[in-house]
Amino acid sequence: MTPLRQRMIEDMGLRNLSPRTIAVYVRRVAAFARHFGKSPELLGPPEIRSYLVHLVQERHVSWSLYNQTVAALRFLYNVTLGRDELLKRIACPKLPRKLPVVLSPDEVVRFFQAVPGLKHRALLMTAYSAGLRISEVVALTVEDIDSRRVVIRVRQGKGRKDRYVIPSPRLLDVLRAYWKAARPARWLFPGQVEGHPLTAGSARRVCVQASHAAGLGKHVTVHTPRHSFATHLLEAGTDIRTIQLLLGHRELRTTAIYTHVSPATLETTPSPLDRLARLPGEVRP
Asked: Class for domain 105-267, per CATH?
């Protein structure tokens, strides 16, 4: 490890950035350095601009990856190297806002029926029942499941926050059956490497396989159970503020996206035209 990388990692640690953010920033800066074959200390505005243009025009990377790169370089130059003038004019573009894919209750049943094995089914049912991110599910330990209080403790979720969620009694029955069969020690869903939890990548592969086996015809990802959880709660009449707390969203506007997904919410909202008095030439019963 180079002294510069070590210093940047230490600076990120002092600011309590999450391990995932630290790993992403290190990868983005390393890719920048490899592109020019030089230390970032020897590079300046022309190289930064050239590299960002390369990402967009030649590699056609996603805007998400582009923004990660800008954020990583900004941290490196602003904080670690103290050269905050280098990226002042480079802004992160606004990401396109896409509606999440949501399964109907019947599709959720078909999806779970197609998931192979009790372990993977329990994992994805936990994501749906409690509305957890897949990173939060794979990080669960056995002691995080408090069946007496009927709560699940989510440790250090997105934003480095702990929270409690309420699992359904049916999920607890599934988790009990899974625990009796697998007897996990520390991690609720252990991975192939001893002492480590299941990876999010493994969960992604299971999702894709189950989606194809169920013939859903939708782009199902590891986020789909969480999106479906929020939408189904909204359709059942749950207050959006409550959904925000259950999902662990910092901003209510992040949760509000589900109001655009739920047909039930849209169907029960009358058009203002319907409130007007009879219009000339209109035939109304």
From this structure: mainly alpha
Using one digit for the tens of pLDDT, what is the confidence trace for 187-225?
999 998 888 999 988 999 999 999 999 999 898 988 999
CA angle 40, 43, 46 (to 5 degrees): 135
Q: Over range 24-48, report the average pLDDT.
A: 94
Among 7, 35, 204, 249, the active-site one is 249
Instruction: Examine the residue annotation and report whether 20 is marked as an active-site residue of this protein.
Output: no
Q: Is 158 a catalytic residue?
A: yes
- Choose, from 35, 153, 158, 218, the residue flagged as catalytic: 158
Is position 223 annotated as part of the catalytic site?
Answer: yes
The predicted structure's pLDDT at residue 230? 87
Q: What is the pLDDT of residues 67-81, one digit of tens each?
A: 999 999 999 999 999
CATH code for the domain defined by 3-80: 1.10.150.130
Domain ranges of the chain: 3-80, 105-267
Find the catalytic residue in 133, 163, 227, 232: 133
258 belongs to the catalytic site: yes
